[in-house]
Structure formats: C-alpha cells, structure tokens
Amino acid sequence: MNSNKKDVYQWFRSTIPQQRISIGSVNEKVWKFYDYGPKDITPLVFISSGTSEIHYKQFVSLCPKGYRCISIQFSPYDTIQGWCRGFDRFLDRLELDKVHLFGSSLGGYLAQCYYQQKPSRVLSMILNNTFSDTQYYHDNSSCSAMFSILPEFMLKRIILSNFPQGLLDADIAETVDFMVDQIENLSQEELASRLTLNCSPSGVINPSVGLENITIIDSLDATSVPERLREEVYKYYPQAKIALLKTGGDFCYISRSDELNVHIQVHLRQYGLDPVNNISNSNNNNSNSNSSNGDGNHSFEIESKGKSIKESDIIQ
C-alpha cells in the first residue's frame, strides 16, 4: 500500500472506533462493526466475507458528505437461516427499523437471503460482484463438510487460492495485498463459517418477486465469481439498474472506490437519501452558513463521538 493510501487507512482506523455487540446468552455471538455518520439518516450497511475494515474508502468518502455507513464483521454461523436471524438481531440491537444494504461476493448473497426473509426492513440493495445460487460452489468444493475442523492455515490457503494472481494493475495488486493482510485477521471459526456459507447448497427463492429497488455494480475484468453466475443475477432481477466498471476486479470498492462511490450516491439518491444536496440547498437559503473552498465546492462536516470531520480533512 503506497503512503497516500496508507494515510487514508490510518485516518480511518484512528478516527472511527470499531465497536462490538454480543448477541445471545447461551451461545454468544460477537459482531464487530464500524458505524459512522448522522444517526438520523437511514444507514447503508456493508456486508462482506472479510473484516469490517475493508470498506474504509466508502467511509472516508461518504460519511463527510452526510451519509451514515455501517460495515460489519459477522460472527460465525453455519447456516444461512442462522446468519439471517443473527443479522436481524444485530439490527434490533442498533435500533434500526430500516436499512440499505451493500453486499459484495458472499455478502451480496447474504444480503439477498436477508431481503427475502425481511423485505419490509430493507429499503434497497446494492449488489457487487455477487451470485444468487451457491450450488456451483458446493459442487466444486471437495471438503465443504470439513471446513469446521480444518486448521486455520488450510482455510486461508483455500480462500487465497481464489485471489487474483499474475500480472495485475498496480491499484488492483495493492488492493489484493491489503485483502491478504485482512484475511490474516480472521479466526479459524470465522474462516470456516464463511466457506461453509459460501458452499451451502442453496439459492434465493422467487428472487424477482417485489425486488425492484436494486443496483448491481460489477467489474468487467476477471473476478473470482464466474461470469455465468453474475449473469444469473441479472436474470434474477430484471428491474435492477446495472452499473459496469471497466476494471476493478473482486475488490473494486477499494481499487476503484471513486467510481463505485459515485454509483452508491446515485443509487441512494433514488430513495431520497441525498444529504449533500440537502446541505447545499440549506446553505443557499442561509448565506451566513455557506462556506466554500477555492474551487467553489462546498465543505461539509459531520459530528460523531465529539469529533468534527470535514471532507477536506481526509487525505485523498
């Protein structure tokens, strides 16, 4: 990671504290997460198979504009139904009646499964390089029944074998290195759970019913999700809006974060969430509260945990 990107990541780590919530009493489940932005805004919840830190570029771009972002690192579950119940209780603990969901890869599949069970709680979804059926992964995994007992190093080897290799674009190569480091922060139980969920033989039932509030963001270059599976997602959701990134690979939310963040803002604007515009309009009505930088762009700030953060404070 070059020094500039490292500075952005360190800003995120030093400014936004990671939080934990325990769910259950007999079989306690600990969910780790980052939550930042105005509490009166319906949040965008990021779901992935990695750590809660991997969406840091969405936080440093969107939160200063007035969006609320939550990135989760879910506790180990061995069934889709168990994960959905756990996620529902997680939202209960945060007192969130409704949310927007962003899911990439396995996270996108989990988001779809949750939407299917609790459609009234999900206002919209953004799906990124994901799939709607896990049968392919089940058929191509020779040891899916043994993930829970495999040692940590073997589980990491299985996951890393699907990471891009060979000659890569510089940004993508740095992103892959970052994601490899993040895998090191997952425990054996977390790794086994993610592989188990990914290879469970199940699919989204009646996917096209009532699902119109969806944007699909995919990379056109090589990803670990086969093209056939991504095309199935398009067929499942014919009403979805589709945004295609020329490059970016599996982790385009890092390697092509600027493009992806624009698509996120366009998506949320459809559902009345456009805090930057609202602030601009308010500022236009009150010139005393209107501030701008040298190029005429407005500077916005948010308050959280006693800290005032301006967009211009973040190193780009």
Automatic annotation (TrEMBL):
Coiled coil: none annotated. Residues 277-316 are annotated as: Disordered. It is found in: Cytoplasm. InterPro entries: AB_hydrolase_1, AB_hydrolase_fold, Maspardin. Residues 277-293 have a biased composition (Low complexity). Residues 298-316 have a biased composition (Basic and acidic residues). Residues 87-134 form the AB hydrolase-1 domain. The keyword Repeat does not apply. Keywords: Cytoplasm. One of its GO terms (cellular component) is cytoplasm. Pfam families: Abhydrolase_1. This is Maspardin. It comes from Polysphondylium violaceum.
